[in-house]
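Hey,
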Amino acid sequence: MATVFTTIGTDVIASSDVNSVSGSNPYTITLDSPIPAGALVGDTLKIDPGGIDELWLVTGLSGSDVTVIDAFAVGASPTVDSCQFERTYASITSWEADLDDTGIYASGDDAKGVLTNDTTYNEAPVVNGGGTRGLNSRELTSVVGERHDGTSGTGARIVISSAPGIGIFSPDIASTYLSWIEIDCNDTADFTRIVAGDSQVDDRVVSHCVIHTHTVADWCFGIDLRVNSVSAGTLAIHNNIVYDLEANSTTVGHTCLGIITLANAADDTSYVYNNTVDRIVRTNSGAAGDSRGIHTTDHAGTLVKNNIVGNVEGDGTGARVAFKINAPVNSPMDYNLAEDTTAAGANSLNSKTFEDSIVSNTDGSEDYTNDITGDTYEQGVDLVDTPTDVGEDAFGIDRDGDALTWSMGASQGVPASATQKSGLLLLSMV
């Protein structure tokens, strides 16, 4: 079926006028001037704003032509009148609430909610809609040109001031994907997990995200994805930057984990590829608890490669390890870097200084771009394109498109002249 884009944000784009209408759901609306800058596929075209407020979902943009569908039960042809482009949803929560909407989606569609950098988002959505409608998948991502550039504060982002519940993004239904979004937890101590996907359903991906700055007097997990141990499942965590997490708990056993993924059934697959994890800390010397950069199981389907982990620390008793599994019997682990000696595999790098491999992890001005003179530059393994888009780093560099030797970590570490992939384009596609 179709991929259905809907935009999320607050912008209202410049007004225009409808010149003519042709076709029938989808309709082609020809404007009397070129499509205004900033208009996106997935926007809502509002005709006669402040009057009849006739709403149409934009599915295509070309020149002066706007393709729309009747997603909002207008029940007639578009009116020839003044118009303006608006973001379809003002919040992630409202996008999620419409995932079973029969006007917008058909059975088998892929729903793609596209965050713009119009505003910051202070919300903690649980994504479990679309099952009744029979969606094939649902994805929350951002627009190219409004994505982060691998550093904080540079693109579409969730910035938390309060967050009820267990996590900021909870993918609680199969085939749910999160990509290209910064989550700044702002040291808000209302929750224990940032990405909380412990519902153990199949096919979930977290990629190209920047997740950081969380202190809580409890467990503290950055990305937590688990798959059902009874039936086959697939998870993927790749090209993410996770840093500044602290579990400051008085409870013995509470841990701080940068990334955790659990896959146990014989035919489960869990990819943990090209992530950068830094400053994972367990504090409160009166209560023992571990700090672990990447926590996985020793399972044949858990593939852990091209990750770099540094500054896993604590001020009390408990394990302080970059990788929980340091001598796997079953799990394919290789081409990782650790400051300790827990990076298994003949091609992994142990006992390295993390800061030698990145530009900066100075608090408040972090830049995890791979230093081309460092230990991890061009020391990774080519993962081709499994899972999909693993070849694009968290800064938008196309490792395969430039025939580059892969680096470890979420950043490739190449000059700005390298090719940047364009999965989402303004106007013609988002």
